[in-house]
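step=encode ok
step=design start
structure_in=
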């Protein structure tokens, strides 16, 4: 049998990613904190609490470990509610803390990538309806403040982490704040406004930093028909994949938003990705069901499942995700 050794390129970047609310601890002024307080929202009544105490300085230990294990980059998010705790107030101390973090990465030989929005909204945004409204101006102002503070150390930016997940989990499945279910029309409004927010942030960053690289981190989920011979299954799988997987990157590529039977242009969103960020976890199979808009969803019965049953181990789906992302012809 023939054998071969494959090597990654010398300049290949190895790293990990983190989210502010999961790591910093004591983020008490955002939508996820409020969501955690409600009974029955989080399994086992867990709360972020102190988390990994990055805000107390323990990011240094984790960055040391990352560097020791050969990582050459880290993607972290900044917490909007810390930096702008109220509509008329900015916290320069919070910005300085983030400046120390990204400088700390550089000092350890690691490239920082900063995510501006990783699922959390300040309470003052959330209580006014959040992304159901067009808050792109507020998001652009926040972006300008962050980039101005961190651009000495950061040239790679992610505007929004998994906007498709934010809209689907918050307004269709109800597992994320605000916990609303089956509000399809509302989720379309949210998705449209997230595109506006991404575009506004993209142009703001490039105005402030010409050498910046800007993209979004987009979750790709393989959605396949359970019964390939049944047109109802294949049609539903194609529809759901188009909405979940294709909507945001197509909008950032062409400036055109497409829903079934509806088409809308946001001209300034066209060409607003300098690189393509793809997150992959799993893939699923969909069967048409007359009582469910999303059909009946399942995993390959032969696939190993995560402890919570949330992820099925199907590495081939990762390969399919990479091939899909490559169709956008971006780094």
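sequence_out=
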């Amino acid at each position: 049998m023939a054998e071969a050794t494959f090597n990654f390129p010398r300049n290949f970047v190895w790293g990990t990613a983190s989210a502010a609310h999961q790591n910093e601890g004591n983020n008490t002024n955002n939508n996820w904190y409020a969501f955690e307080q409600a009974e029955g929202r989080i399994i086992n009544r867990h709360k972020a609490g102190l988390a990994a105490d990055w805000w107390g300085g323990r990011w240094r230990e984790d960055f040391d470990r990352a560097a020791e294990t050969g990582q050459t980059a880290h993607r972290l998010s900044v917490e909007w509610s810390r930096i702008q705790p109220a509509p008329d107030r900015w916290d320069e101390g919070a910005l300085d803390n983030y400046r120390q973090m990204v400088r700390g990465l550089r000092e350890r030989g690691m490239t920082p990538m900063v995510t501006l929005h990783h699922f959390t909204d300040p309470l003052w945004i959330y209580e006014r309806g959040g992304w159901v409204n067009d808050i792109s101006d507020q998001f652009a102002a926040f972006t300008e403040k962050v980039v101005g503070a961190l651009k000495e150390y950061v040239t790679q930016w992610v505007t929004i982490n998994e906007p498709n997940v934010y809209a689907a989990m918050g307004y269709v499945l109800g597992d994320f704040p605000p916990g609303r279910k089956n509000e399809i029309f509302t989720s379309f409004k949210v998705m449209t406004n997230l595109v506006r927010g991404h575009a506004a942030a993209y142009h703001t960053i490039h105005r402030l930093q010409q050498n910046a690289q800007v993209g979004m981190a987009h979750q790709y989920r393989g959605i396949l028909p359970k019964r390939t011979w049944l047109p109802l299954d294949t049609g539903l799988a194609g529809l759901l994949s188009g909405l979940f997987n294709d909507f945001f990157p197509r909008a950032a590529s062409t400036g055109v938003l497409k829903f079934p039977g509806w088409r809308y242009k946001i001209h300034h969103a066209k060409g607003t990705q300098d690189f393509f960020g793809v997150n992959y976890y799993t893939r699923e199979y969909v069967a048409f069901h007359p009582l469910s808009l999303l059909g009946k969803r399942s995993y390959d019965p032969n696939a190993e499942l995560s402890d919570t049953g949330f992820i099925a181990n199907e590495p081939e789906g990762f390969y399919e995700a990479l091939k899909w992302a490559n169709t956008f012809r971006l780094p």
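step=design ok
step=annotate ok -> The first helix runs from residue 20 to 23.
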